[in-house]
Structure formats: C-alpha cells, structure tokens
Amino acid sequence: MDNGLLDTILHPHHDKPAWTNWAKNQSCHPTEIFNPETLEELTKIVFMAKADGKKIRCAASGHSWSSSSVTDGYLVVVNKMEKVHTPIWDNDLKSWTVRIETGVLVKDLDDKLRQNDPPLTLPSNVVLDSVRYGGVLSLGCHGAATKTRTLPDLVSEVTIIDANGDLNTFSEAKNPEEFAAATVNLGLLGVIYTYTLRVEPMFNLKVMWEHVPGIVPYLRQQANERFDRFEAIRKKYDPNGMFMNATFAGILGH
User: Fold this and answer.
1) What global pTM score does this model have?
2) C-alpha pair distances (Å), 230 with each of 55, 159, 218, 224
3) What tens digit of pLDDT does each residue of 45-60 get?
4) Is the peptide bond before 118 cis (omega within 30 degrees of 0)?
5) Per-residue pLDDT tens for 104-130?
6) How far is CA 128 from each of CA 48, 102, 145, 146, 166, rounded to the nearest angstrom?
7) Which CATH class for the 3-77 domain?
8) Topology of domain 88-201, per CATH?
9) Domain residue spans of the chain
10) What residues have CB less than 8 Å from 224, skipping those under 6 apart?
11) Which residues contact 38 (CB under 8 A, 6 or more apart)?
C-alpha cells in the first residue's frame, strides 16, 4: 500500500491544524486556529464563522482538564489578547478596578498591579501564574477568601462579542441576571473581549481553616436553579449555537 494512502487512513486529520491542552487529555483538529491580537480581528473571525457556518470555541493556556475548548470548527486562541489597562478608582463601586483583555496572564496582571501607586492586588487569586484570566473567569475557577468565593466574584464588567458580531457590555448595574450569566459564561454567549476586576491595596494575609457542613448540597441546588435562566440568556446572544461544542450540547440537551 502507498505510504501516503496509509498515512491518510491512520491519520485522517493530518491536513488540519491540531490543538492539545496542557495535560494532553484533550485534543482536537479544528478547521482553523486563529491567534487574534485586536478587537477588530476577533470580530472578523465571528463574521467569518457566521458566513461559513462554523462553530467557535476559545482556548488560552489550555490548563483546563475539560473539553471546553474542543471543536472541529474555528478555535480562537486568545494568548495575544494580553493588554492590561491602567487601574482606576471607581467612585460608584468605591473600589479600584482594572480592565484586562481575555488573554492576560496571572503573572502579568500581578506585575502591573504591583507597579501602581498604591500597589494593588486581587483579594483572591490563582496559585499558578502561567494561566490566563479569560479561561479562569469564564469557567468559574479558582479563588478562596472570606468575602469572595471564586475569582468571578471580583468581576464588575464583561464585554463579549455575540453571534452577530456585536460587542455587548454586561454589568450588575445594567442587568444583574445577564451579568451573572456573562461572568461565568463558559464561552457560550460569544467571544470574550475584556473583564474588569475589582482590586484593592496590597495587604497581609492570615490563613484560617473552617468547616462548613452541608455546603455541597446547597451549591448543587443553587446551580440547578440558575441553569435554566442561563440557557435563556445564552439563546438571546447565540440563538443558533455558534459557540456550542459537543460537550455543552450534551449538557444543555441539544
């Protein structure tokens, strides 16, 4: 048998770009892999996907064990979307805030906040400094503190490009329920452009351990109650499932 034909049979996706996560337990062969650097490039990718009938999923450092980034459509790798804006004092929130693009590394944000006057920090953060905030926040990961449970609790605003190529801004003041869905959106409302986080002056930390009985059943109940409301919001910004993959289609019953 011809070696070229044999290779085609054994490796049918060899002509497509491949992506594998950090743990190497998830991989896929997207039609195209994009590495945008600007909002304009992100928007153009959404219009291309709409015109070509392709699905879109996003990836960053690939530290998630889940199949959230797996797709045979367009994969948008946001590692070059790494701008950190200068922190500002928000009079309405009575807090310092910082706006970051979705591909910003934990280390890069920490370095920027330390350079501020006064030096700033997140009250709850990630141990690894090589992960990127878009994935951490959109999947509801990491963080533990007395007044915040996970890092998404620190979000004050999210901007997302929806299936029509429109840039939407979500905040608690504008619409609390949609803001909650957008903060931990699982990549199902569109392509995330920026997050704005509440930060505070650096402080000394004291660690204490406390057992909270019955917390897991409570959290499970809360998740179930919010699930249907999230699906209604998702359909508003992605009515045709452009940002869906097989994993989320199964979870959502599509």
Assistant:
1) 0.84
2) 20, 17, 18, 10
3) 999 999 999 999 999 9
4) yes
5) 999 999 999 999 999 999 988 888 888
6) 34, 17, 17, 20, 33
7) alpha beta
8) 3.30.465
9) 3-77, 88-201
10) none
11) none
